[in-house]
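Database export, one record per block. Field names are fixed; values are copied verbatim from the stored entry.
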Amino acid sequence: TILSFIVLFTLLPAPAFAFSLVPCGSSEYPDPCQFRHLIILIIRLINYLISTAAIVAMYYILLSGFNLITALGDPEKIKKNKLGITHAVVGFAIVILAFVFVNLLVNGIFGRPDAARNWWSPGCIYDITNTAGCPVGAGGS
């Protein structure tokens, strides 16, 4: 078990070197950093946090579901685990609805009617070489 943790934590940082949060100011991207790069950083961090919230919600749903199955008819444990599933689903729904609300607000204030506002798309956020349909600076340009 200890060996598997050592291997896991040794290999865990490897994917971090393959992705740059901001496409500027490095040897790979020699362009100087601008305000738009700060916006790209914020967008990527928000998408990362939403992904993390989804993983945490799935963990709590699975944990509560497993504990619900192994409750052996104890009404107190059943009630507690049903409440845990409810809290995980409602919490993740709040995170998603907050993202949608802020996204609609930002697009309503700063959006252009003739522009495709898909900056939240995983193709624009995680694939930094994809420039098709992405705002200037969100892809590899």
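Remark 1: Confidence is low (pLDDT under 50) at residues 125-131, 136-141.
Remark 2: The longest helix spans residues 75-110.
End of record.
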